[in-house]
Structures are given as structure tokens and as C-alpha cells.
Amino acid sequence: MRRSPNPEQRRRTLCDAAIQLLADDGVKSATHLKVDRKAGLPDGTTSFYFRTSSALLRAVAERIAELDLKDLTAATRRTDPSSQPSGLATLVFRSVNGARLTRTKARNELALQSPRDPELAKALRRYTDDFTALIRDAVVRLQPEGADVDAALIDAQTYTVQMFIGGVMLACASGDRRFHTATELDSLISGIVRGVGEESSANFRDSL
Amino acid sequence: MRRSPNPEQRRRTLCDAAIQLLADDGVKSATHLKVDRKAGLPDGTTSFYFRTSSALLRAVAERIAELDLKDLTAATRRTDPSSQPSGLATLVFRSVNGARLTRTKARNELALQSPRDPELAKALRRYTDDFTALIRDAVVRLQPEGADVDAALIDAQTYTVQMFIGGVMLACASGDRRFHTATELDSLISGIVRGVGEESSANFRDSL
Question: What GO molecular function annotations does the UniProt record carry, in alphabetical order (chains A, B) (predicted)?
Fold first, then answer.
């Protein structure tokens, strides 16, 4: 007697095939039938596990978040402030290189799709929140020694770094990458935090 | 006798309908038939003007570039360094608000599609190059008075601001906007330029 496949393993296989399709050909190509064939499974398998297109995309978002979370945990462990490059820069650098670029491309596709699908948006947000927390930690560690911690400033710096990283991930997915090491990226991130901080103090002094 | 439609005008009408479809429902919805119906024109009109899906997307990219270029020209005219907010911040602020957000969403969709379609990538790049030049001008104007102009540094600052703006446009297209005025945006851009400059001099000093 043949063992029936483990449903969790089968779901992962289908989601991984969908990630590859999303990265290569975009949302319009991530159909149930194409996923079946990409995964080398009988026609109808994807429909059996994920009834709708939205259910499939949501499962893909959750699979991406699961994979991302492992990387994030590894990055968070590198919290030694003296480590160069930082865990954050290393994480971003890895996510736009090699096999992980596929996942980044798929994530971009889902992000663009998310305003049209609230459940998908929710699934994506779960990871985004963890990622934002990592950025905020990095920003806090980059404050000048002895400085008062200003929550509004930390917010502005976190936002600016986050938008920069979002832009980098989008550009790299289009083949436009202009840094060669995580250390270069780290220096740009430190520059953003330093400059937004100084600009904000300058504005504060101006407003006195 | 009915006058036959002006072909240029007709092409514009079809492209504008396609921009709306791209923004609302993504690349997968920008089919010839849906564009016909969105534009309120007989079935087959879009296929008559743009034979393939790629030809349609390329025409849309050119239409977006034509509209963007008007805004860019207006922004470039605001070159008075004392004008607050700068032309660049004003341009970005406008492109993520009101009716122009539709165009920004459509541009994001095309950008994600572009690695799969070299002709589309070429059409998009024409505008990107002009936009990069505007960013570079803004960066040059933000150099500290009397500083030596260092081309590699200007490149790094331009790149960082460009990635930040790309991230802002992507996030705003997903409904995530966290600034309320062009002046706030301007201050973040100035902060990036200042900080990347200082970080770079610090690294230079460290390497001595």
C-alpha cells in the first residue's frame, strides 16, 4: 500500500512551487494548474488544498513568513553592536542575493496584490511587524551615546530606513543592485539614522 | 458623416483606461477586452491599436512617462535652493496623493513586470533616468557650502534617496503613508543626504 502524502509537506511543496512562479512570472501566472505542474503533481492537487486563488496566495504569504522568520531570528541573534555589518544589513543583503532573491520577488508581488485582498494583507503584516521591530532595534542601537531617546525621532528614523530597504528590495528584484557588500549597505543605513537624527535636532533648534 | 476618431487621442484614452485597471486590479486584469470595456469602446478596439499584451503595457509605460514628465518639468523649475519644500519633495508628495496615486500604483505594477519584458523595461527607464537626474540635482544642492564635490559620494547619496523614494511610493500604493506634508518628506531627504555624507567622511577618516 502506498502511504498517502503528509498534507503539511504537500502544502509546503505547492507553496514553494507558487513562490517560484510568482517570482518568475508574477501574480497572473500563479494559477492552480500552473502550480500543479510546477510542483510535478497531478492536475487538481492545488485546488484540493487551496480552494480559491486568494487562499493560495495567503498560504504562500504564510510560507514566505515562515521562511523569513528563520532568517530574522538569525539576524536578531547578531545583536552585538560592535558586529560589522549589523544583523539588519546582513539580512537585507542576503535577501537580495542568490536563492533568497526569488522569495523577495514573490514577496513584492504579494505586497502589490495585498491592497486588493485584506486577508492576504493580514498574512503579510504578521512578518512585516517583526521586521519593523528588527529595524527599530537597529535604530535604537545607532543612537549617539548619552542622547535622550526621543520616541518620535526613533519612529521617523525607523520609517526612513524601512522605506529605504523596501526600495532596495524592489530595485534588486528588477536587477538593479548597486552595492556589493553588506558593509556598504550597513554604512548607508547608519548614515540615514545619523542624518535624520541631526536634521531633526536642527529643525528643533530652528523652531526655538 | 461621422468623423473617424483621432488615432492619437484614441490611444491615449485606451492607455488611461489601462492605467486605471493596472492600479485597481494589477497586471493580470489589464487584458485587451477589459481595457475596451473600461474605456467604453467596442470590443476589439484595444487589440486593433495594440496587438500584443506587451505592446499595450509598453504604450502605457510611455503614456505614464509623458504625464510624469510634465510634473517633473514643473518640479525642476522649482530649483530655488531656498524654496521649502524642495521641488523633489513636492513631486514625490504629489505622486502619492489624490489622482496621481493611481499612476504611481500603475507604475509599480509595470516596474515589477519589467524584468520579464525588456522592451517594457526600456520604456520605463526613459523616465527613471530623468527622475534620477532630478534627485541628483537635489543632492548636489544639499552639499554643505564650500565642500569638495565627490562624485562617488553624490552617487551614494543619490542612490540612497532614490531607494527611499521607491520604498515610499510602494508603501503609499499599499495605503501605508506616514507623513502629512511635503515639508516632512523634505526633511527626511535632507537627513539622508546629510547622514550618508557624514558617514562617508567618518569612514574615510577611519580608514586613514
Answer: DNA binding
In a domain, B105, yes or no: yes
Cβ distance of A159 and B175 shorter than 8 Å: no
B31: left (phi over 0), alpha (psi -120 to 50) or beta: beta
In one letter, which amino acid is A61?
A
Please name the residues between 116 and 155 in chain B that touch chain A, using a CB distance below 8 Å. Answer: 116, 121
Q: What is the mean pLDDT of each run of 10 residues along chain A (208 residues)?
A: 78 97 92 97 97 95 91 76 81 92 95 92 88 93 86 95 96 88 94 94 62
- How many angstroms separate the CA atoms of B72 and B88, rounded? 9
Q: List the single residue in B115, B174, B195 with the smallest CB-CB distance to A191.
A: B195
Grid cell of A53 as nine digits: 486563488
Whichever domain contains A174, its CATH number is 1.10.357
Q: What is the pLDDT of residue B207?
A: 53
10-residue mean pLDDT series, chain B (208 residues): 78 97 92 97 97 95 91 76 81 92 95 92 89 93 86 95 96 88 94 94 62
B166 touching A (Cβ < 8 Å): yes
Report yes or no: B114 at the A interface, CB cutoff 8 Å. Answer: yes
Residue B158: inside a domain: yes
Whether residue B37 is contained in a domain is answered as no
Q: How many domains does chain A have?
A: 1
Q: Does residue A27 belong to any structural domain of this protein? A: no
From the list A115, A171, A191, which residue is nearest B174 (CB)? Answer: A115
Could you list the residue range(s) of the whole structural domain that residue B188 is in? 60-206
Q: Can you tell me the distance from the alpha carbon of B80 to that of A94, in angstroms, rounded to the nearest whole number?
A: 41
ipTM attached to this prediction:
0.92
Shortest CA distance to A62 belongs to which of A127, A129, A130?
A127
Written as nine digits, the cell of A78 is 547578531
Q: Mutating which of A194, A200, A205, A206 best tests the B interface, going by the most B Cβ atoms within 10 A?
A: A194
